[in-house]
Design a protein that fits this description.
The complex is a heterotrimer of chains A (413), B (289) and C (313). Chain A is α/β, with parallel strands linked by helices and 413 residues long. In chain A, 46% of the residues lie in helices and 14% in strands. Chain A folds into 2 domains: 29-131 and 300-343, Periplasmic binding protein-like II (D-Maltodextrin-Binding Protein, domain 2); 133-299 and 367-410, Periplasmic binding protein-like II (D-Maltodextrin-Binding Protein, domain 2), CATH 3.40.190. In chain A, the strands form 3 sheets. In chain A, strands 6, 7, 8, 9, 10 and 12 form a 6-stranded mixed β-sheet that branches. Chain B is flat, with a radius of gyration of 24 Å. By secondary structure, chain B is mostly helical. Chain B is built from 13 helices and no strands. Helices cover 74% and strands 0% of the residues of chain B. The two termini of chain B are 34 Å apart. Chain C has 12 helices and 2 strands; from the N terminus they run ααααααααααββαα. In chain C, strand 1 (253-256) and strand 2 form a beta hairpin. The chains are: A alpha/beta (413), B mainly alpha (289), C mainly alpha (313). At the B-C interface, helix 1, helix 4, helix 5, helix 6 and helix 7 of B face helix 1, helix 3, helix 4, helix 5 and helix 7 of C.
Chain lengths: 413, 289, 313
């Protein structure tokens, strides 16, 4: 009897399974993937509105953060023969991975509206997802209370004085540490990607790659390197040890949100985590040099590329155009997804204070480029990150840190 | 004798207290999940240890998750149920069948096949991850049977991955079933099928309930295999796929994630407590007689 | 007489045919699924390890012979990961099995709440992913120092376990034991339930003490379970990835061979990093195949030795 039940159920299973093939769709469908799951709700709403307006169905998927690796998903899609029509790349490493199927978008109208499109060998291949920037985010109210003018914070000496003063006023200000900084595992991107960039581009013309290229060629400017290492040491010295060595993103940003730290070493993407903030904040430059470096680091963090083998190529291009030129698209990009638009024709502004600060710095032209991409992700994550971590743990002295850094950079290709 | 009985009771009470204490220690992290599911995100980040001020936040979170149109939670719940149930049925029955014939057939071939199943447990998933997707794609274009983005593919995948451990365990425990029981069945005129399903399988109840539980846990909570075989954002989604967006790149909705975990825990606990009584009786007890 | 032997031999060969049919019929569903999702992809994966396959868009996949394997062996992080994984596995096997067996004994004894306890010890196995990491990071970074300060244990109150790669490995062992002991306990429970009560009663009547009953009746009958559990803990510890990624993320850095490297990157994570961070998926395949060969050797030895001792016990 049991045997019969078992076999009938198996048969039912087989029958129901083979009947579960998806139906063919007559309508045009494009697949759009992006890597910020927190804006998925806004994205799905936009996809529905887009379909109502144009009749094109957008299959929008978000995958990113700690529990979904977009790189793996794209590889699986490729293996399954279901490569999406639009997906993001974040620099030379990921561009090389998909180069063979990335379309040339040089002829698109939006190319003229932006200055941060992704260009390879003279061809425009990437649509900038947003503009992002980082610097030293500061709590304006606490600085005012301490009598420090953020406009003076443009070089190492100014920061040193400010940190010493703030450290002495810890009880008065109610803070645990002057800076909220992380250097531990899982947060190597803060030190080895972002902070490292101060060495490469602070104070230089936008897109001036000489320092980075010199390092790759083996010519290291010792003065510049030593000043930079001093800056790292200063930041670590005035950071909360727990957050520095073992803190995660939430504890680092949380300390700033709860006014336990005056400065935060992050970028404008933290606006999403600071919606409950009760104080004024903005960005100040990094003080990685003894001379003035009056600017913050601004660029596009990722670019959407179009699959040149897409079955609905024109629909994909139209989708990107809609983000730039349609009211619906602009509203989604800036207001719902909270991104600073990379296109000059868009006048909308995101709500976050730090995003507005980035826009202010950009309007004044006081911006430096993101040059860390000249160094492979592997180098930054596996070689540089652990070195910063050693300094953070106190396992090496500042001088040993400088030596380790120099050795590593000499071997970088 | 009176003294002995007293000592026994004292010893038992001490064991009881000890076990209870150890269990409380074990469950502290789960307790943390519970109390944090009833807080807002900021409360979780700033004061993870404190008890929730307002338990109704938990209800609010549950409602948010259940009613979010993009999550389609109820649909994902049904899918998870269907996939888990059919996979478990397949794993348990097919593995028991395979283990039994591999055990009772003493040939070099059967030993080799058994070794193959066991050795496969060692294969790191990364090696087969992408080739599996590619192979499924090739297979479905050759045979027309939908393997990717379908129930068929994911269930076959779970049976395939779950069979190694299950066959290994069945094989290990089947050895202690005395031959005499089966011989008696053959003498009584039972064929192989009847012997297996009516005599052997019932004896193995504690084992296969254990296997159901062990496999059930990882299938219910599994993210990677569904992400590869079913795809994210496709019509057939399981619970882990559906709630994955709570973990953003920068903004993690810890409150919703904790709540989602609790919601996923409930069926598991219910199943576990219900299945426990089947493990209680011994395997061979009384059956020789 | 000739007729009798004829029918006997023909019925024997018919029996043999049926037996063979049953053998394959019973084996077929599991074998088919197994071949489909493990063996065939594994063969494909082995092929890829000899090429420059990247899993991303390539113009062509070219054969490179043993290059990936040579590179893998020359990678210091691979060597470090092998050492640290072996140490971790050794500690884990011992700790998980001692705790799981003890718990199994407790929940199969005459305690009143044993059903609840069984569920309670098993529940940790359900928590995984980033939530596991978040909760335990919080416990190690905030809860443990406060607790240590309260009891006067100064080392732990001033040093974070996750802040140093040596103690971070211990933290890893603690968390993975916590998560896995319940799972292994279930297997021991099934085995302990298997010990026939009448045998134990008979031994008791014969005057055997509790320890003697345990040593001479229980342990030998539980022996098959040891083979299973030792194998599982060996393989699972060696393959550890989830707890590693969520708890320590490859760990605080440490100095190895003069360079700073991530200090708690176990083998599975090293292989994953080779694919995702170093963007060398083919080399990751090669590393994974080496990993497989090493572990299969260890575990076959373990199973062989265990089975021998099973018989002896």
């Amino acid at each position: 009897m049991k045997k019969i039940i078992v076999f009938i159920s198996m048969l039912l299973v087989l029958v129901s399974l083979t009947a579960c093939a998806p139906k063919e769709a007559e309508q045009v469908v494009i697949t759009f993937k992006q890597n910020k799951p927190e804006i998925d709700d806004a994205l799905q709403a936009y996809a529905k509105a887009y379909e109502a307006a144009t009749g094109v169905k957008v299959n929008a998927v978000s995958c990113g953060g700690g529990s979904c690796t977009l790189g793996d998903m794209l590889k699986a899609d490729y293996a399954a023969g279901e490569m999406p029509d639009i997906f993001p790349i974040d620099g030379p490493d990921s561009y090389k991975q998909w180069e063979a199927i990335i379309a040339d978008l040089s002829g698109e109208d939006w190319v003229d509206e932006t200055s941060v499109e992704y260009v390879v060998d003279g061809k425009v291949v990437g649509f900038p997802v947003a503009v992002e920037g980082w610097g030293m985010a500061y709590n304006a109210d606490l600085l005012a209370k301490a009598g420090i003018d953020p406009k003076t914070l443009t070089n190492y000496a100014a920061y040193m004085d400010a940190f010493v003063k703030l450290d002495g006023m810890k009880a008065e200000l109610g803070i645990d540490s002057v800076v909220s900084m992380t250097a531990g595992p899982g947060m190597y991107w803060v030190t080895a990607h972002h902070n490292f960039n101060s060495l490469l581009s602070n104070g230089l013309e936008y897109n001036d790659l000489t320092v980075a290229n010199n390092i790759l060629a083996g010519n290291i400017d010792d003065t510049r390197l030593n000043e930079y290492a001093d800056w790292v040491d200063l930041l670590f010295k005035y950071a909360d040890k727990t957050v520095l060595t073992t803190g995660n993103y939430d504890s680092q940003v949380g300390a700033f949100l709860n006014q336990k730290a005056v400065f935060l070493h992050q970028g404008n993407w933290v606006d999403g985590n600071l919606t409950d903030a009760t104080f004024k904040m903005a960005f100040a430059p990094h003080g990685s040099s003894t001379s003035d470096t009056d600017g913050i680091f601004v660029s596009a963090p990722a670019w959407y590329v179009v699959n040149k083998d897409s079955k609905n190529y024109q629909a994909a291009l139209d989708f990107l155009n809609a983000l730039v030129y349609s009211d619906l698209g602009q509203k989604y990009m800036v207001e719902d997804a909270g991104m600073i638009p990379a296109f000059g024709n868009i006048s909308l502004q995101p709500k976050g204070q730090l995003s507005q600060s980035v826009q202010a710095w950009t309007a004044e032209g006081k911006v430096y480029s993101w040059n860390q991409y000249l160094f492979a992700g592997e180098f930054r994550d596996n070689v540089l990150g652990p070195i910063y971590d050693q300094l953070a743990q106190g396992a090496v002295t500042a001088d040993e840190f400088k030596a380790l850094l120099k050795t590593a950079l000499m071997e970088a290709k | 004798m009176f003294k002995n009985a007293n000592n026994k009771i004292i010893a038992r009470n001490i064991s009881e207290v000890m076990t209870f204490t150890v269990m409380i220690m074990f469950l502290v992290p789960l307790f943390l999940v519970l109390i944090n599911a009833a807080k807002t995100n900021n409360e979780i980040i700033s004061a993870p240890l404190s008890l929730p001020t307002d338990w109704s936040v938990l209800i609010k979170n549950i409602t948010t998750i259940w009613s979010n149109p993009n999550l389609r939670y109820s649909q994902a719940l049904v899918n998870s149920f269907v996939i888990t149930t059919f996979s478990l049925m397949g794993i348990t029955i097919f593995s028991a069948m395979a283990a039994w014939v591999l055990l009772r057939t003493k040939t070099k071939l059967s030993t080799a096949i058994l070794m193959l199943f066991i050795a496969a447990m060692v294969i790191p998933f990364q090696v087969v991850m992408f080739p599996l997707v590619k192979w499924f794609g090739i297979f479905q274009s050759i045979t027309g049977i939908q393997m990717l983005r379908s129930y068929t593919g994911i269930i076959i995948a779970y049976i395939g991955f779950g069979s190694s451990l299950s066959i290994f365990m069945f094989h290990g425990f089947m050895k202690s079933i005395p031959h005499e029981i089966e011989e008696a069945a053959y003498v009584d005129g039972c064929g192989k099928f009847k012997t297996f399903f009516l005599i052997v399988l019932p004896i193995l109840k504690p084992i296969y309930v254990t296997i159901l539980i062990l496999n059930g846990i990882w299938i219910w909570n599994d993210f990677l295999l569904p992400m590869l075989v079913l795809g994210k954002g496709t019509p057939v989604q399981t619970l882990p796929l559906a709630v994955n967006n709570f973990a953003g790149a920068f903004l993690v909705s810890w409150d919703l994630m904790m709540t989602a975990i609790l919601m996923a825990l409930v069926p598991i606990i219910v199943f576990f407590l219900a299945a426990q009584k089947h493990i209680i009786k011994g395997m061979v007890e009384g059956s020789v007689k | 007489m000739n007729d009798k032997t004829k029918t006997k031999t023909s019925s024997i060969s018919k029996d043999k045919k049926i037996e063979k049919l049953v053998f394959w019929l019973f084996l077929a569903p599991a074998l088919f699924s197994f071949l489909m999702v493990q063996i065939i992809p594994f063969m494909i994966g082995i092929y890829y390890s000899f090429t420059n396959w990247s899993a991303t868009a390539q113009i062509s996949i070219d054969f490179v012979g043993m290059k990936n394997y040579f590179d893998a062996f020359q990678d210091p992080s691979f060597l470090y990961a092998t050492i640290i994984t072996s140490i971790y596995t050794f500690m884990n096997i011992i700790l998980v099995n001692i705790i799981a067996f003890s718990l199994a004994l407790l929940v199969t004894s005459n305690l009143k709440g044993k059903n609840i306890y069984r569920a309670g010890f098993f529940l940790p196995n359900i928590i995984g992913g980033i939530i596991l990491g978040y909760i335990w990071q919080f416990i190690f970074n905030q809860f443990v120092p406060k607790l240590a300060a309260a009891v006067g244990f100064t080392y732990l109150s001033e040093n974070l376990m996750l802040g140093n790669s040596n103690t971070a490995i211990l933290a890893l062992v603690i968390v993975s034991t916590w998560q896995y002991a319940g799972y292994i306990m279930m297997i021991y429970v099934a085995a302990l339930q298997n010990v026939p009560k009448d045998l134990l009663e008979a031994a008791q009547i014969d005057g055997a003490s509790a320890w003697q009953r345990f040593r001479n009746v229980t342990i030998p009958l539980v022996a098959p379970a040891f083979t299973v559990t030792l194998f599982l803990t060996l393989v699972n510890s060696f393959k550890q990835f989830d707890v590693n990624a969520s708890l320590t993320n490859g760990g605080p850095s440490t100095m190895f061979m003069g360079k700073a490297i991530k200090g708690t990157t176990l083998l599975a994570m090293n292989i994953n990093d080779t694919s995702i961070i170093s963007l060398n998926t083919a080399q990751a395949q090669a590393k994974a195949i080496v990993f497989f060969l090493v572990l299969v050797t260890f575990s076959l030895i373990q199973v062989y030795v265990s089975k021998k001792r099973e018989v002896e016990l």
